[in-house]
Amino acid sequence: MIKPYSNDQSKKQQVREMFDGIAPTYDFLNRFLSLGIDVSWRKKSLKMLEEYPIHHLLDIATGTGDFALMAADILKPDRIVGLDLSAQMLEIAKKKNRANIEFIQGDSEALPFEAGSFDGAIVAFGVRNFENLGAGLKEIHRVLTSGAPFLVLEFSRIERFPMKQLFFLYSRYILPVIGKLFSMDFNAYHYLHESMHAFPSGTEFATKLQEAGFKFVKLKPFTLGICTAYLAEK
Known about the structure:
The chain has one domain (11-233): Vaccinia Virus protein VP39 (Rossmann fold, 3-Layer(aba) Sandwich). It is 46% helix and 18% strand. The chain has helices at residues 11-34, 37-46, 66-74, 87-96, 133-143, 163-183, 186-198, 203-211; strands spanning 56-60, 79-84, 101-105, 120-124, 149-155, 215-222, 227-233. A seven-stranded mixed beta sheet has the order 3-2-1-4-5-7-6, with helices on both faces. The model has no long low-confidence stretch (mean pLDDT 90).
């Protein structure tokens, strides 16, 4: 199991600690390290949900709330709940909140909601951080209504030459150094590289969704496969 730090804490505890620590620089580094392309990825993936009548939307691992806020603009649900482990990330999300969004602290693998509470769920760059991926996906499945969509946006392993080699060098050597300069946490951005390459992307992740009970609908790669949007239904 890939963890941010080399200590005896659980992955969940380490992820919470990591995001609490990098929260003040998180938004800036997201834009800087991706050259702003991550905004386009989020918008394009959310548009995959426009055909669904979503009234109650759950944003898992909401972080500083960017995906939830964008979903409010694009999908216009009646209610959005953004859930995250990190209290410091949520404090930033609450300051940016301008929509009908409720930001709460909670565990994605033990969601504090009754079965069938939401008719849509989204997560951007968060499932990679689950301690138990299968348990987290089953919990999301549990809180959705029948036929509800589940959208996952996540980094994926690039297979094409030379993009595969170039992105490996960038994520392995350059990204952690820049991350340390601004966040003072080299491990956090080294973990980003390690977790990206360990994550079961593409058809492997589609299989994980099906094992959790979802009906897999489609996947859509962005920017030569740096990240992928996965759409499934309960």
